[in-house]
Amino acid sequence: MKNTPLVKNIGLALLRILPAAMMLSHGIPKLQKLIAGNFDFGDPLGIGAAPSLFLAVIGEVICPILLIIGFKTKWAAIPAAITMAVAAFIVHGADPFGKQEKALLYLTFFVVIALVGPGKFSIDKR
Fold first, then answer.
1. Within its chain, how far is the Cα of 14 from the centroid?
2. Model-wide pTM > 0.85
């Protein structure tokens, strides 16, 4: 298949939407925990459990929703990427690669999105 602009933009949409949608499966339980007032959460950056949970919700719920709709896409990809960098290199830093792999894959997706943008099928390009 020839790499036409349509094919390229479909690829960019898939790259943006699918990882962001999958990330929600990790973030929604954290959002529910936050809403319930349960701040029992790790503190990988030393800023406290509640702020860490709040930042994780931003990186795993708010930013992925923005990525799915393609709004402020390049900016939304940055906190999501930072969240995954913390997960891979701090939370799972001493773990074997298999434990780090998922966070590293998400990190890669979000860095690529931050670099190349959302493509034509996004609010940003309307």
1. 14
2. yes
Q: Residue 36, CB half-sphere, CA atoms under 13 Å: how many?
A: 10
Confidence of residue 3 (pLDDT cuts 50, 70, 90): confident
Exposure of 124 in the CB half-sphere (CA atoms within 13 A): 22
Q: Where are the domains of the chain?
A: 5-116
Are 17 and 68 a contacting pair, CB within 8 Å? yes
Residue 120: burial class (beta carbons within 10 Å; 0-12, 13-18, 19+)? middle
Assigned token pair, 69: 């709709």
pLDDT tens-digit profile of 74-121? 999 999 999 999 999 999 999 999 999 999 999 999 999 999 999 999
In terms of Cβ atoms closer than 10 Å to its own Cβ (0-12, 13-18, 19+), residue 25 is exposed
**Amino acid found at 81:** A
